[in-house]
Design brief:
Two copies of one chain form a homodimer. Chain A has about 625 residues and is mainly α. Chain A has a five-stranded parallel beta sheet, with helices on both faces. In chain A, helix 18 links the parallel strand 1 and strand 2. In chain A, helix 11 runs antiparallel to helix 12. Chain A is elongated and about 115 Å long. At the A-B interface, helix 17, helix 18, helix 19, strand 4 and helix 22 of A face helix 17, helix 18, helix 19, strand 4 and helix 22 of B.
Chain lengths: ~625, ~625
């Protein structure tokens, strides 16, 4: 427990939850890491598709990133509106469910959950991948490194929201700061050199084009890949409740900060890549460098600044998983509250976070990392489809919301969300088509399966709820007194206390002896009349019966259970209370030295019994 | 269960035990395999020690075997007397304990148990060793073959005594028959050739002597090794109760048959070895043959008869373990009856055998086989010490018995057992000295450790027995009515049935709600007054209380347990009955979908509770 206290921190009381609320400065690292880290791979993903065009590809990157930033802006305005409209947290699940119905909500939830899980595996894998390509010595340790990062992120999140913000602030702001500085220097150099800056370290020459012109298919694929830059934008809207008051402005400002920084980074990278003639390189070739590595080297050379910037990129990539850890448990909790997931997902643990969701996410992501041995390239095509599907459901939901609402600015708001829905919906379709053969088809199988699972769970809980719901007050009529049954093997203090309790409970007591040995049984009968019947008659109490059950096959449980079931059947309006005396075992060796008859009897009565068979356990503790 | 029925057989009722009793013909394979199979290794073990004498060694084998047969005869007459004196089974443990005291009995029991365990491992290992040396192809499978034999012997013994006799009769009688035939032919040939028979296949020439004369030390070691031929003789006296009536004559006749056959085999082998000039061969050399292999080949050539005889030797060696399986569980049962072992050793299983003893013996022997990879040569020096120690204790006990008895033939009987005690006691000392350095010293550690363990177990049971013994009849005074505590989370049929039962039990009922959520708690309070208090007041029953326990750290068990313990402390003369409603889970997936709160609560109340805290479990079963 001491170690656990150190690792996770001391328990937090429920009334301390205000202290766990976040502001803009902590919200950015907690909720923004996924979105911001996209700047490190979004442009690269688009340029990688344009690789066959060689230098010509650079002409397309600015328009493609322009479109992506435009979609980002639309999504941004849409989510601002969502935050205002759903101050308790307007995740895609809530918005879609309330406006489009349960199935739409579950579709959005399934899509998001898949994306959150993938984000953890892919993010950690990308960060560790960047690290091992910088230090090839670590290559054999890829999977252990991934699991170490996963464990650290999991433990920090289990420590609570506040500690997460503190832990991740430094790398986040270092990442944002160094990249912004690099872009500023690059833009400045480009400007004073009339758009043709001299690179400090020239980027490797671009590949010779293998095709002369970009076809529509290539451009669509580049767009679809570049869209990964936008994942994580929904996180803030889902977590409005986590912000300190005033929650809505704080959430909006955090969203603004994340989107603005992301947009600047994307635009800057795209523009400077063109200016410095930087293209994607073939990852499988020796001397491979990422776009950002080439860019920072071209702008500022390979000095201390280069290494700080590149390190912060690696750390932020590895930690981008954190957005999932912030949002997945909240989403799971909403689903659990609506009975689509087990109730344990809705319980806040010792540090006021939804422990079960965090552990579940860590377990599934860890499993993916282990299965793919820490290299999750195969999972990337599956990624982002879920996020965009959730965006679309959410925007569409907001359109219906404004339509119903009909307030002052409803029309404008409806327009904004409508454009958002169309833009993100188009993006989903493009992504699905462009990446279908690469694996996006798997999402089409997984998302409905998850949806179905949620509905099955809900159906089960509804059924249980219906069965145990009490539609009336306490019913005190039609209840006969219980019949007490006490198994007895020999007269000792255990049996005595059981019998005494049974006599307090009812005047209808049967002691039951399963007879394996006739001599022993005769001894017991003598003991019974002397130790039980005599004192009972002296006190003028109703006499308990002693029932002897023959057991030719030397079994105990079976004849006893049959007797109890028969008694229950013969007395349809009464409860049969089996009073089981038990010698409590507190040391391991006692398990070897005693039979487990009491425990086995309790278990079999629970398994094979029914509502009118009650087990009363009278424990007996040994001294020392 | 179907497979188990096939493997073990259908359960036998206690009244069927007469049908499981054995006669002479089945007693010989069940109880005699250990003793009879000794003929295959006893003379060999003695001759192996005489190896350095070369051909000269043969001059000593007849006198040594003569002494061994004389000791065997003494032991035989002693055990005949034991059988008469202890018709319920006069194993060394019983005889030593009744006449020499508990410690002597336990010493005999410890020694015998060790020997029984070793006998299983060594016997199976010897049989499989003979098999793989005949078919070297099987050499890599030595351990698996040993474990297969162990499993077969275990399963047959679990099927019951009768089936064991049936299964082992054929190989036993084949072994006895073929060896007797071989010896008869050999003796006949020797006689008609004036003591110098012509071998059909000449045995390999004897080794050149490395020493010219046998010293006392060598002869003692040869005697000590040859004594292994006598192990297993005590088996019958231990199992008199297993014989069909008249039990004593049947047991005596079986003992006579075993000892007579063994004596003939030992004498015949020793005499013919000398006549045919057959000596032990170095086991580590190529072309190694056992004495019996050489003997049968010399007498009858290597035809069909040779292969049948040698096969039956292999089978009987492997099955010699069976004597341990017949006697170890009986001995363990006697110890368990006297509280020196857990009671489970005294229960008869579905086939009327002491299942626990059989399984325990199989497990320990299997472990030994696994640890020694199926080759138990290192264990052989430990072997037989235990058996002879037990013989000695038993004989000495009989001396005391006759001394006390003072009947008609008491003096003669005393003399016979006295000679037996001295002979076997001398043999123990010789064995210990001769084989001390080879490993016999280990027995001096193990036997007292076992004895100590038995005494510790007995001490524990005595302590428990003293604590739970009831020295008085049912005490009905000084008992206040119980207080019932019902945990309540929400008003549903589970809580309703729990509360109803609690109200039947006592007029002092407290429903306890652990408050994690204040709103939920307020709802519950409203529901309480409407669903419980109103009907209660209408019925003019005593009103149950609703206690609210705040839980700032969102824990359930801890505050609840503390409340119950406090209540118990405040009411020193009353029982606190905690009524736990439980949704019984009958499908595996329900364990994922429900919290295990009821089970956990029952467990924690049992662990941390005390004698005045009683758990009442009200189960609720879902339809379908």
């Amino acid at each position: 427990m001491w170690l656990w206290d150190k690792l996770i921190g001391k328990p937090l009381a429920s009334y301390e939850s205000e202290g766990q609320k976040i502001g803009i400065w902590s919200g950015l690292p907690i909720l923004g890491l996924d979105g911001l880290s996209s700047a490190a791979y979004g442009p690269e993903a688009a340029l990688a598709i344009l690789l066959p065009l060689g230098g010509l590809g650079l002409n397309y990157i600015s328009p493609i990133m322009g479109i992506i930033i435009a979609v980002l802006a639309i999504v941004y305005f849409s989510y601002r509106q969502t935050i205002s409209a759903y101050p308790n947290g307007g995740g895609s699940y809530t918005v879609a469910r309330e406006n489009l119905g349960d199935n739409a909500g579950l579709l959005a939830a399934s899509a998001l959950m898949l994306d959150y899980i993938l984000n953890v595996a892919v993010g950690i894998s990308a960060g560790v991948g960047a690290l091992v390509s910088a230090i090839p010595l670590l290559l054999p340790y890829t999977l252990p490194l991934c699991l170490v990062v996963l464990t650290i992120v999991t433990l920090i999140n289990l420590r609570g929201v506040r500690d997460t913000g503190l832990a991740f602030a430094a790398p986040t702001y270092l990442f944002v700061g160094t990249l912004l500085i690099a872009i500023t220097i690059g833009l400045f150099k480009t400007l004073i050199n009339g758009g043709h800056p001299e690179a400090v370290i020239s980027p490797p020459p671009l590949q010779t084009p293998t095709i002369a012109m970009a076809g529509l298919w290539l451009l669509l694929r580049a767009f679809a890949s570049g869209c990964t830059a936008m994942t994580g934008v929904e996180a803030v809207s889902n977590a409005v409740g986590a912000f300190a008051p005033p929650a809505i402005p704080n959430a909006k400002r955090t969203l603004t900060a994340i989107v603005a920084i992301l947009a600047i980074l994307l635009a800057g990278v795209a523009y400077l890549a063109q200016a410095y003639h930087i293209g994607a390189m073939d990852e499988t070739q020796n001397g491979y460098q990422t776009i950002l590595s080439q860019l920072v080297a071209a702008v500022a050379g390979r000095g201390v600044f280069y290494y700080i910037t590149l390190s912060s990129i690696i750390v932020v990539l590895a930690l981008s998983a954190n957005t999932s850890f912030a949002d997945f448990p909240r989403l799971a909790r909403l689903l659990a509250n609506d009975h689509y997931l087990p109730q344990s997902f809705s319980l806040r643990g010792r540090r006021l976070v939804y422990t079960m969701g965090i552990l579940f996410l860590a377990a599934v992501a860890g499993l993916l990392l282990i299965v793919f041995r820490g290299i999750t390239d195969a999972l990337i095509p599956l990624f982002a489809v879920g996020a965009f599907l959730a965006f679309t459901m959410s925007q569409a939901g907001m359109v219906v919301h404004w339509h119903r609402d009909g307030g002052k600015h409803a029309t404008t708001s409806l327009m904004i969300n409508g454009v958002g829905a169309i833009a993100t919906g188009t993006a989903v379709i493009i992504m699905l088509i462009a990446k279908f053969a690469d694996g996006a088809w798997i999402t089409i199988l997984i998302i409905p399966s998850l949806l179905l699972l949620f509905k099955i769970i809900k159906h089960y809980y509804d059924d249980v709820g219906r069965q145990i719901r009490s539609t009336h007050g306490l019913d005190l009529a039609h209840v006969g007194p219980p019949i007490a049954v006490v198994p007895i093997d020999w007269w000792n203090v255990l049996n005595e206390s059981a019998l005494r309790f049974a006599l307090q409970l009812t005047s209808d007591v049967v002691a039951v002896h399963v007879m394996v040995d006739e001599e022993h049984c005769a001894d017991l009968q003598r003991s019974w009349s002397q130790n039980v019947i005599q004192p009972i008659q002296a006190s003028h109490l109703p006499e308990p019966k002693l029932a002897i059950l023959p057991s030719p096959y030397r079994l105990f449980q079976k004849p006893f259970l049959e007797y109890v079931l028969k008694l229950e059947k013969e007395n349809p309006n009464r409860i049969v209370a089996v009073v089981v005396p038990e010698l409590v075992q507190t040391h391991w060796y006692q398990y070897l030295l005693h039979n487990q008859r009491a425990a086995a009897l309790k278990e079999i009565l629970l398994r094979k019994g029914n509502r009118r068979i009650v087990v009363i356990n009278l424990p007996w503790y040994l001294d020392a």
